[in-house]
Design the sequence.
């Protein structure tokens, strides 16, 4: 089965519509960023405290908001949002904004207390099974089990506790046990243990899955690192390509990649997605991937320059792109398949990461064909044109240009 | 060609065996297999759950403590030489401002001009780490020499790392790490990683409390509240004192406030050892011993203050107030503790060394174990889905050669996992994403080669020639594409941390392995397919 045999599309002739489309997308992204007052940074770059809480039923957002507003212990604004990702259910993100480091720590404490006061039963004297660790559960159960005459050696107790908590933490419970009867199927649980459990513990309707606290110093540092990493990576690639081809190819590739990054960030803004450190990782991968694509085309151009010496540059480039079209589409398609799988099934943590890659791979493939090669074409036309109009060295320049341009691109 | 093929096959088989061994050792049963797999592939914090903390050591505390101590010594020396002085102060340092460390200086006022040379003599002879600057004929400022200041800061961080490490040992974790973070000398941060800790509050408790230990002279107290104390003193505290709260203990709900001397008699730096114990009435107490220097100073102080009270202050909260019964030199007891737990806790804090300076939390991430399990589940589902999709497409589009590509892909994944195991790299969720991405990119190399082979076949070459040309012409393109992605991964590794580094590492290993599998292995498989069939004109591709 072959899809792209001997195609002959005039890619470089029809470059203008695509360049204009690129500009429109870039501007749209830019406008979106301006309208929203900047980029939407995740906690990595923005700083603050963020708690991900899972509820056993649909989370009561209003109740949570009022509870936090009323508590007065937390300085600064509190934001409560539910997760939009379809893979997670009943999860809420509670965030407080950036203050100084000491306040962050106190905020985290207060957030835990407010949640406990609103939804748990801190005064009942019982232990919340959904929030317990192995040590606390074991030490809580040890004496009552003895009092209830349930025979239990220490290693046995440890194993039962470990089993209960593993059961709680694996999907589909994912950290929340909603009913004690769910535990009855575990090995090692007998009636005596079950009744002691019910006596000593209760099941809070929520569990804190993740807490993140990033101070302003760290936030600023991570922002710096992200920018530096991207700039250095681009510079490194520019150097490598300039070394393997000709400097204009390096520049063209970098401009194409830069364009990809800008459009992807613009799309992030348009779709209200957050930018975190993992998104930067995705962007850097995308930079590498887009370079790949561009290099394959440039490689073919270089090869053809050696063979088709008399061919004008534009039609040579067209031929090169057409020859590699099959590979370009297949590769992009396959990588896209894996990235889409990540986007659909990868879970909330990887959501923004895979979104960046989905956008990026699409834009990246398109830019290698419609942006990178035309830049080289423009440059060569411009320099060849200049050489032709210089009157003094007219004759020498013409033969020079004819001899030099094809072979200069070869290394 | 045949010998070549055999040699190649041997290399490939040996590689497979080494890799499989790296991942699952020699399993004796199904359960063993799973266990070995889990042991060899280390999961990162975001997959296993755990806590990641970045603490900033408040080195300015240590610098101030050193200045205070030096001031006390200097006062004694001046007294011995009968040199008069009006005042000797050190400025306060603020929490969260490590730069205050550079501004710590002892301000000495009122040295009579006639005694200035004697004064200078003492300072230059006995306080060699300090530089003395004259502000005018009677006032001076002493500050640490820059190299000594730097040494003190670096040493403080190092001791903090050791102390925090000791404290975390109490958690009994198999895998944990406490290390200096950031450039030594200019950044004073410590990174603590506690994988598998399912009780982050307890971890913070162990590390964060009891930052600074001081034994201070009690001037007055107890007062029922801070306002009450201030009111009694007419709104202003006498110079060189501070109000400290006493930790409420058990049944005694109300808090108490004491007026203590600002400058401690003994700090945690002088503490050598501490043990819980019981006195003759079976009441709990903590026995402690001090360093020689500390012991001497403590001896002089207690001798002069019998009948007075002193307070053990931990993290600016009084844990116990004791009356000095007799001269205590280098070992003593803190009595009147409420329970065994209190005595054990106190001796543990004293023994593991108090931190030489306070700590401030700059960053904290706690991932519950359930999120880790969720993430692994999601990663696996996405990975398998992606893999199946890719395999399907490859088989449909490239027919039997697609099988070639799929085998290379399988081997690539095995090598990747083995490398993760052998290098003790940590697998994070972005790392799993990296593996999934490697699958996509690995296939890219195969596509490059196969498309080239198709082109060669189209231009009329024989099958053998087409396959050889396909591989050789595509080789440099493969190198170029892999090097560029690796360059961007290198920068990700340098500038990223934790999960992002995991991603960079898996992607780089995957790409490197891919060069081997997509070229060497694929070519070998083609070699077998075409062995001895030189006249072949058709290839299933």
Sequence:
């Amino acid at each position: 089965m072959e899809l792209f045999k001997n195609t002959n599309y005039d890619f470089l002739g029809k470059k203008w519509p695509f360049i204009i489309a690129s500009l429109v997308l870039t501007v749209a992204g830019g406008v979106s960023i301006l309208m929203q007052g900047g980029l939407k940074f995740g906690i990595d770059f923005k700083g603050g405290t963020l708690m991900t809480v899972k509820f056993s039923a649909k989370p009561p957002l209003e109740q949570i908001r009022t509870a936090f507003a009323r508590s007065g212990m937390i300085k600064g604004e509190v934001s409560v949002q539910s997760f939009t990702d379809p893979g997670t259910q009943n999860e809420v993100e509670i965030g407080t904004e950036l203050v100084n480091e000491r306040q962050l720590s106190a905020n985290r404490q207060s957030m835990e207390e407010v949640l406990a006061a609103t939804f748990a039963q801190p005064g009942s004297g019982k232990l919340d099974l959904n929030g317990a660790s192995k040590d606390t559960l074991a030490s809580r159960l040890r004496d009552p089990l003895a009092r209830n005459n349930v025979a239990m050696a220490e290693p046995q107790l440890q194993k039962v506790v470990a089993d209960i908590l593993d059961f709680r933490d694996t999907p589909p419970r994912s950290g929340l046990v909603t009913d004690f009867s769910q535990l009855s199927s575990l090995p090692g649980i007998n009636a005596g243990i079950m009744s002691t459990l019910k006596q000593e513990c209760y099941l809070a309707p929520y569990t804190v899955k993740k807490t993140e606290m990033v101070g302003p110093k760290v936030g600023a540092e991570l922002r710096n690192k992200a920018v530096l990493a991207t700039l250095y990576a681009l510079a490194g690639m520019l150097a490598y390509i300039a070394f393997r081809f000709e400097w204009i190819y390096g520049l063209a590739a970098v401009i194409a990649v830069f364009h990809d990054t800008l459009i992807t960030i613009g799309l992030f803004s348009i779709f209200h997605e957050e930018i975190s450190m993992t998104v930067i990782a995705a962007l850097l991968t995308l930079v590498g991937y887009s370079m790949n694509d561009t290099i394959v085309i440039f490689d073919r151009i270089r090869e053809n320059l050696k063979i088709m010496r008399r061919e004008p540059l534009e039609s040579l480039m067209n031929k090169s792109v057409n020859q590699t079209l099959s590979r370009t589409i297949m590769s992009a398609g396959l990588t896209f398949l894996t990235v889409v799988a990540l986007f659909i099934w990868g879970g909330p943590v990887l959501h923004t990461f895979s979104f960046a890659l989905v956008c990026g791979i699409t834009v990246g493939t398109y830019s290698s064909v419609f942006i990178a090669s035309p830049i080289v074409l423009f440059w060569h036309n411009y320099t060849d044109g200049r050489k032709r109009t210089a009157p003094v060295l007219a004759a020498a320049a013409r033969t020079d240009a004819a001899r030099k341009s094809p072979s200069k691109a070869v290394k | 060609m045949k010998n070549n093929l055999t040699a190649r096959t041997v290399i490939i088989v040996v590689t497979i065996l080494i890799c499989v061994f790296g991942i699952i050792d020699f399993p004796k049963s199904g359960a063993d297999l799973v266990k070995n797999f889990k042991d060899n592939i280390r999961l990162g914090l975001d997959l296993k759950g755990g806590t990641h903390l970045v603490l900033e050591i408040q080195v300015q505390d240590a610098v101030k403590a050193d200045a205070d101590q030096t001031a006390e010594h200097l006062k004694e020396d001046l007294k011995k030489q009968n040199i008069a002085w009006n005042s000797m102060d050190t400025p306060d340092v603020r929490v969260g401002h490590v730069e205050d460390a550079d501004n710590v200086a002892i301000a000495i006022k009122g040295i009579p001009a006639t005694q200035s040379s004697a004064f200078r003599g003492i300072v230059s002879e006995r306080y060699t780490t300090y530089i003395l600057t004259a502000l005018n004929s009677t006032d001076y400022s002493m500050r640490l020499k820059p190299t000594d200041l730097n040494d003190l800061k670096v040493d403080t961080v190092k001791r903090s790392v050791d102390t925090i490490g000791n404290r975390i040992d109490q958690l009994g974790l198999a895998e944990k790490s406490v290390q200096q973070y950031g450039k030594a000398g200019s950044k004073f941060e410590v990174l603590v990683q506690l994988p598998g800790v399912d009780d982050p509050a307890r971890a913070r408790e162990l590390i964060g409390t009891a930052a600074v230990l001081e034994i201070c002279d009690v001037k007055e107290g107890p007062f029922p509240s801070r306002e009450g104390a201030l009111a009694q003193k007419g709104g202003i505290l006498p110079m060189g004192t501070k109000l400290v709260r006493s930790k409420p203990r058990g049944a005694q709900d109300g808090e108490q406030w004491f007026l203590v001397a600002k400058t401690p008699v003994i700090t945690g730096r002088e503490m050598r050892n501490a043990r819980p114990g019981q006195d003759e009435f079976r009441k709990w107490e903590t026995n402690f011993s001090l360093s020689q220097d500390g012991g001497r100073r403590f001896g002089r102080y207690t001798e002069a203050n019998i009948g007075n009270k002193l307070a053990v202050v931990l993290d600016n909260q009084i844990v116990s107030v004791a009356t000095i019964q007799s001269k205590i030199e280098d070992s003593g007891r803190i009595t009147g503790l409420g329970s065994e737990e209190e005595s054990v806790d106190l001796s543990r804090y004293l023994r593991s060394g108090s931190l030489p300076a306070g700590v401030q939390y700059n960053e904290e991430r706690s991932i519950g174990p359930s999120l880790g399990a969720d993430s692994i589940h999601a990663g696996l589902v996405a990975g398998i889905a992606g893999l199946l999709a890719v395999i399907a497409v490859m088989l449909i589009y490239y027919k039997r050669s697609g099988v070639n590509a799929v085998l290379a892909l399988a081997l690539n994944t095995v090598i990747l996992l083995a490398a993760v195991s052998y290098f003790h790299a940590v697998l994070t969720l972005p790392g799993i994403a990296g593996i999934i991405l490697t699958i996509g990119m690995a296939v890219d190399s195969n596509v490059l080669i196969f498309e080239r082979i198709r082109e060669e076949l189209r231009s009329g070459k024989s099958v053998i020639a087409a396959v050889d040309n396909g591989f050789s012409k595509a080789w440099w393109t493969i190198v170029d594409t892999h090097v560029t992605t690796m360059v961007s991964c290198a920068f990700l590794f340098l500038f990223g941390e934790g999960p992002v580094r995991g991603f960079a590492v898996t992607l780089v290993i995957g790409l490197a392995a891919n060069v081997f599998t997509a070229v060497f292995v694929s070519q070998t498989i083609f070699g077998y397919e075409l062995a001895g069939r030189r006249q072949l004109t058709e290839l299933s591709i």
Observations:
- The longest helix of chain A spans residues 351-389.
- The CA atoms of residues 258 and 287 of chain A lie 8 Å apart.
- The longest strand of chain A covers residues 206-214.
- The beta strands of chain A are 48-55, 78-82, 91-96, 127-128, 201-202, 206-214.
